[in-house]
Amino acid sequence: MIEGKVGERKRKRRGKRSWLVISITSLMLMGILWAIVTAWLITAYTAEQSTRQSDAAIILGAAVDGDNPSPVFRERIEHAILLYRQGTIPNLILTGGSGREGERSEAEVGRDYAVAHGVDPADILIETQSRITEENLINSIVIGDKAGYQNYTIISDPLHMKRAMKLASGLGMDVVPSPTQTTAYQTWRSQIPFLARETVLYMGYTVKGWIDNLQ
Q1: pLDDT in tens, 5-47
Q2: What sign for the dihedral angle of Cα 23, 27, 30, 32?
Protein backbone atom coordinates (compact mmCIF):
# COMPACT_ATOMS: atom_id res chain seq x y z
CA MET A 1 0.00 0.00 0.00
CA ILE A 2 2.79 2.38 1.03
CA GLU A 3 4.87 1.38 -1.98
CA GLY A 4 1.89 2.14 -4.20
CA LYS A 5 1.54 5.66 -2.79
CA VAL A 6 5.28 6.30 -3.18
CA GLY A 7 5.12 5.14 -6.78
CA GLU A 8 2.16 7.39 -7.45
CA ARG A 9 4.03 10.41 -6.04
CA LYS A 10 7.03 9.64 -8.26
CA ARG A 11 4.79 9.41 -11.30
CA LYS A 12 3.23 12.77 -10.46
CA ARG A 13 6.67 14.36 -10.05
CA ARG A 14 7.80 12.91 -13.36
CA GLY A 15 4.60 14.21 -14.95
CA LYS A 16 5.22 17.70 -13.58
CA ARG A 17 8.83 17.67 -14.79
CA SER A 18 7.74 16.51 -18.24
CA TRP A 19 5.12 19.26 -18.42
CA LEU A 20 7.73 21.83 -17.37
CA VAL A 21 10.21 20.62 -19.99
CA ILE A 22 7.53 20.68 -22.69
CA SER A 23 6.43 24.19 -21.67
CA ILE A 24 9.98 25.58 -21.66
CA THR A 25 10.77 23.89 -24.98
CA SER A 26 7.59 25.27 -26.52
CA LEU A 27 8.38 28.80 -25.34
CA MET A 28 11.91 28.54 -26.72
CA LEU A 29 10.64 27.33 -30.09
CA MET A 30 8.05 30.13 -30.19
CA GLY A 31 10.78 32.65 -29.37
CA ILE A 32 13.03 31.31 -32.12
CA LEU A 33 10.16 31.38 -34.62
CA TRP A 34 9.28 34.94 -33.61
CA ALA A 35 12.90 36.00 -34.05
CA ILE A 36 13.07 34.42 -37.50
CA VAL A 37 9.84 36.10 -38.62
CA THR A 38 10.98 39.45 -37.20
CA ALA A 39 14.34 39.20 -38.98
CA TRP A 40 12.53 38.40 -42.23
CA LEU A 41 10.20 41.39 -41.81
CA ILE A 42 13.16 43.70 -41.14
CA THR A 43 14.92 42.41 -44.24
CA ALA A 44 11.81 42.70 -46.39
CA TYR A 45 11.25 46.29 -45.23
CA THR A 46 14.59 47.39 -46.70
CA ALA A 47 12.83 47.71 -50.07
CA GLU A 48 10.43 50.37 -48.73
CA GLN A 49 11.35 53.70 -50.31
CA SER A 50 9.13 56.79 -50.31
CA THR A 51 9.47 59.68 -52.75
CA ARG A 52 7.13 61.95 -50.77
CA GLN A 53 8.16 65.58 -50.38
CA SER A 54 8.47 66.10 -46.63
CA ASP A 55 9.17 69.24 -44.65
CA ALA A 56 12.50 67.83 -43.46
CA ALA A 57 14.68 64.75 -43.46
CA ILE A 58 15.82 63.32 -40.15
CA ILE A 59 19.25 61.78 -40.57
CA LEU A 60 19.74 59.31 -37.74
CA GLY A 61 23.12 59.63 -36.09
CA ALA A 62 26.02 57.22 -36.19
CA ALA A 63 29.63 57.23 -35.06
CA VAL A 64 32.19 59.84 -36.05
CA ASP A 65 35.98 59.82 -36.21
CA GLY A 66 37.10 63.21 -35.03
CA ASP A 67 35.83 65.70 -37.60
CA ASN A 68 34.81 63.01 -40.07
CA PRO A 69 31.62 60.94 -40.16
CA SER A 70 32.08 57.20 -40.00
CA PRO A 71 31.41 55.28 -43.25
CA VAL A 72 27.94 54.38 -41.91
CA PHE A 73 27.06 57.99 -41.03
CA ARG A 74 28.55 59.31 -44.25
CA GLU A 75 26.27 57.07 -46.33
CA ARG A 76 23.25 58.49 -44.50
CA ILE A 77 24.34 62.10 -45.00
CA GLU A 78 25.14 61.48 -48.68
CA HIS A 79 21.65 60.10 -49.20
CA ALA A 80 20.12 63.16 -47.53
CA ILE A 81 22.23 65.45 -49.71
CA LEU A 82 20.99 63.60 -52.80
CA LEU A 83 17.34 64.14 -51.80
CA TYR A 84 18.11 67.79 -51.02
CA ARG A 85 19.65 68.35 -54.45
CA GLN A 86 16.68 66.66 -56.11
CA GLY A 87 14.34 69.06 -54.33
CA THR A 88 12.51 66.27 -52.51
CA ILE A 89 13.67 67.50 -49.11
CA PRO A 90 14.15 71.24 -48.40
CA ASN A 91 15.55 70.89 -44.88
CA LEU A 92 17.79 68.52 -42.96
CA ILE A 93 17.84 67.61 -39.28
CA LEU A 94 21.16 66.05 -38.25
CA THR A 95 21.00 64.04 -35.04
CA GLY A 96 23.40 62.53 -32.54
CA GLY A 97 25.36 63.49 -29.47
CA SER A 98 28.97 62.93 -28.46
CA GLY A 99 30.34 59.47 -27.82
CA ARG A 100 32.91 60.77 -25.36
CA GLU A 101 33.35 63.96 -23.37
CA GLY A 102 35.24 66.56 -25.37
CA GLU A 103 34.42 64.88 -28.66
CA ARG A 104 32.38 66.72 -31.29
CA SER A 105 28.79 65.57 -31.61
CA GLU A 106 27.65 63.42 -34.49
CA ALA A 107 25.19 66.13 -35.51
CA GLU A 108 27.88 68.82 -35.68
CA VAL A 109 30.18 66.65 -37.76
CA GLY A 110 27.25 65.71 -40.01
CA ARG A 111 26.26 69.35 -40.48
CA ASP A 112 29.78 70.36 -41.49
CA TYR A 113 29.95 67.50 -43.98
CA ALA A 114 26.60 68.47 -45.51
CA VAL A 115 27.59 72.15 -45.77
CA ALA A 116 30.91 71.21 -47.37
CA HIS A 117 28.94 69.30 -49.99
CA GLY A 118 26.62 72.11 -50.97
CA VAL A 119 23.78 72.22 -48.44
CA ASP A 120 22.83 75.73 -47.33
CA PRO A 121 23.53 76.06 -43.57
CA ALA A 122 20.18 77.86 -43.25
CA ASP A 123 18.48 74.61 -44.27
CA ILE A 124 20.07 72.54 -41.50
CA LEU A 125 19.01 72.02 -37.90
CA ILE A 126 20.92 69.87 -35.43
CA GLU A 127 20.25 68.16 -32.11
CA THR A 128 23.34 67.20 -30.16
CA GLN A 129 22.09 65.38 -27.06
CA SER A 130 20.78 62.02 -28.24
CA ARG A 131 22.53 58.68 -27.79
CA ILE A 132 19.98 56.22 -29.18
CA THR A 133 17.48 56.13 -32.05
CA GLU A 134 14.46 56.94 -29.92
CA GLU A 135 16.22 60.02 -28.55
CA ASN A 136 17.20 61.04 -32.10
CA LEU A 137 13.51 61.13 -32.95
CA ILE A 138 12.20 62.70 -29.74
CA ASN A 139 14.70 65.54 -29.93
CA SER A 140 13.98 66.03 -33.63
CA ILE A 141 10.29 66.49 -32.84
CA VAL A 142 11.14 69.33 -30.43
CA ILE A 143 13.29 71.30 -32.87
CA GLY A 144 11.07 70.40 -35.81
CA ASP A 145 7.99 71.75 -34.03
CA LYS A 146 9.80 75.02 -33.36
CA ALA A 147 10.65 75.29 -37.05
CA GLY A 148 7.07 74.54 -38.08
CA TYR A 149 7.77 71.16 -39.67
CA GLN A 150 4.82 68.77 -39.78
CA ASN A 151 6.11 65.71 -41.62
CA TYR A 152 9.43 64.01 -42.07
CA THR A 153 11.46 61.57 -44.12
CA ILE A 154 13.65 59.29 -42.02
CA ILE A 155 17.06 58.41 -43.41
CA SER A 156 19.09 55.50 -42.11
CA ASP A 157 20.55 52.16 -43.15
CA PRO A 158 18.12 49.72 -44.79
CA LEU A 159 18.26 47.19 -41.93
CA HIS A 160 17.70 49.95 -39.35
CA MET A 161 14.67 51.42 -41.11
CA LYS A 162 11.85 49.20 -39.86
CA ARG A 163 12.71 49.76 -36.19
CA ALA A 164 13.18 53.48 -36.76
CA MET A 165 9.78 53.73 -38.43
CA LYS A 166 8.13 51.75 -35.61
CA LEU A 167 9.65 54.09 -33.04
CA ALA A 168 8.57 57.16 -35.01
CA SER A 169 5.03 55.88 -35.44
CA GLY A 170 4.88 55.17 -31.71
CA LEU A 171 5.77 58.82 -31.11
CA GLY A 172 2.91 59.94 -33.35
CA MET A 173 5.16 61.31 -36.09
CA ASP A 174 4.06 61.69 -39.72
CA VAL A 175 7.01 59.94 -41.35
CA VAL A 176 8.02 58.02 -44.45
CA PRO A 177 11.15 55.89 -44.97
CA SER A 178 14.07 56.57 -47.26
CA PRO A 179 16.85 54.05 -46.60
CA THR A 180 20.29 54.64 -48.00
CA GLN A 181 20.81 53.07 -51.42
CA THR A 182 24.34 52.09 -50.46
CA THR A 183 25.53 50.88 -47.09
CA ALA A 184 28.77 50.26 -45.24
CA TYR A 185 27.30 46.89 -44.20
CA GLN A 186 28.05 45.20 -47.52
CA THR A 187 29.06 41.67 -46.52
CA TRP A 188 27.17 38.98 -44.65
CA ARG A 189 29.89 39.12 -42.00
CA SER A 190 28.86 42.69 -41.18
CA GLN A 191 25.16 42.41 -42.03
CA ILE A 192 24.33 39.41 -39.84
CA PRO A 193 25.42 41.00 -36.51
CA PHE A 194 23.59 44.20 -37.48
CA LEU A 195 20.44 42.25 -38.38
CA ALA A 196 20.66 40.22 -35.16
CA ARG A 197 20.95 43.41 -33.11
CA GLU A 198 18.03 45.04 -34.91
CA THR A 199 15.92 41.90 -34.45
CA VAL A 200 16.53 41.80 -30.69
CA LEU A 201 15.88 45.55 -30.29
CA TYR A 202 12.73 45.42 -32.42
CA MET A 203 11.37 42.51 -30.41
CA GLY A 204 12.22 44.30 -27.17
CA TYR A 205 10.40 47.43 -28.26
CA THR A 206 7.40 45.32 -29.26
CA VAL A 207 7.30 43.68 -25.83
CA LYS A 208 7.61 47.12 -24.18
CA GLY A 209 4.59 48.25 -26.20
CA TRP A 210 2.56 45.26 -25.04
CA ILE A 211 3.43 45.98 -21.42
CA ASP A 212 2.60 49.68 -21.76
CA ASN A 213 -0.79 48.81 -23.24
CA LEU A 214 -1.57 46.57 -20.27
CA GLN A 215 -0.84 49.28 -17.74
Answers
A1: 545 555 556 656 777 777 788 889 999 999 999 999 999 999 8
A2: negative
